[in-house]
Specification:
mainly beta, Jelly Rolls, 6-stranded antiparallel sheet, 23 strands, 1% helix
């Protein structure tokens, strides 16, 4: 297994991240990703620096401030499988402060390189409208958190819930070429959770020439990196699957190319 496309979770000794991806560790230019598990009263104070960030509440609640803006009890669910999330967006040059206000709080920090960004904002769960994509064995539910309909500089963030036994990110597509308006170059991370902790999924990451050709067994809490190529996902039978996608590139557009061998399934 190449280290390029898979990151396993690890329990920090203190209040560090459970999962972390940086542009340096990934060998790319834009996307960073972290997951924190906090207890009531625990807090973190990261600076956005030369990045914009979307804080996605996975479960529990936290008080969140970005610069002069502050929001109490951000968080709307007890599990990633229970509805849409609260989130907070912050631009570059902001001091963030996040303090858990529930007994257990789990959050994702979705980063992208940026110079301007947009205004700090809370994105409430009630503003996120779930919708279905695909049909039959490819049906899944989408929660667009910070896609092109919301302001940001380069960051795109969305959640996908895939029923047990179904496929998603399907038919296979890619976004590794800077060829707007046909396709936009976007780096991407997949943060996976299974409804049962012993569950699993399978993610393929492959290119047309198979110079990258991985079949990855994904467990609860794993992060898969997609530096290039097609990247479909299959949820194991009996195991509902959630994943959080973070994408960014030089142009903030979600423009993809479907694998020509499977394009007939779009008809």
């Amino acid at each position: 297994m190449t280290k390029l496309v898979l990151r396993r979770p690890s329990k920090p000794a203190g209040e560090g991240p459970v999962a972390i991806v940086t542009p340096e560790s990934a060998g790319w230019s834009y996307v960073g990703f972290e997951v924190y598990e906090l207890r009531r009263g625990d807090g973190i104070r990261p600076s956005t620096g030369a990045r914009e960030v979307c804080v996605v509440m996975l479960r529990g609640q936290a008080d969140v401030s970005a610069g002069s803006r502050a929001w109490k009890d951000v968080g709307a669910r007890n599990s990633v499988f229970e509805g849409t999330p609260d989130a907070v967006y912050a631009p570059p040059g902001q001091q963030l402060e996040i303090t858990a206000s529930s007994e257990v709080c789990e959050l994702a920090m979705c980063w992208a390189s940026a110079s301007r960004g947009a205004e700090p904002a809370r994105i409430q769960a009630s503003e996120i409208r779930p919708f279905k994509r695909g049909s039959g064995r490819t049906e899944r539910t989408i929660h667009n958190i910070l896609m092109e309909d919301r302001p940001a500089e380069s960051l795109l963030v969305t959640e996908v819930l895939t029923p047990a036994g179904n496929w998603s990110s399907y038919p296979p597509h890619k976004h590794d070429t800077d060829d707007v308006p046909r396709e936009a170059y976007l780096e991407e991370t997949y943060y996976h959770r299974t409804a049962r902790p012993e569950g699993f999924a399978v993610q393929l990451v492959y290119t047309d020439d198979r110079s990258l050709d991985e079949a990855i067994q994904v467990r609860d809490g794993d992060v898969v990196l997609v530096p290039r190529g097609y990247h479909p996902v299959a949820a194991g039978p009996g195991y509902d699957l959630y994943y959080l996608n973070v994408m960014a590139g030089p142009v903030r557009r979600w423009l993809v190319t479907t694998d020509a061998d499977h394009r007939w399934q779009l008809d």
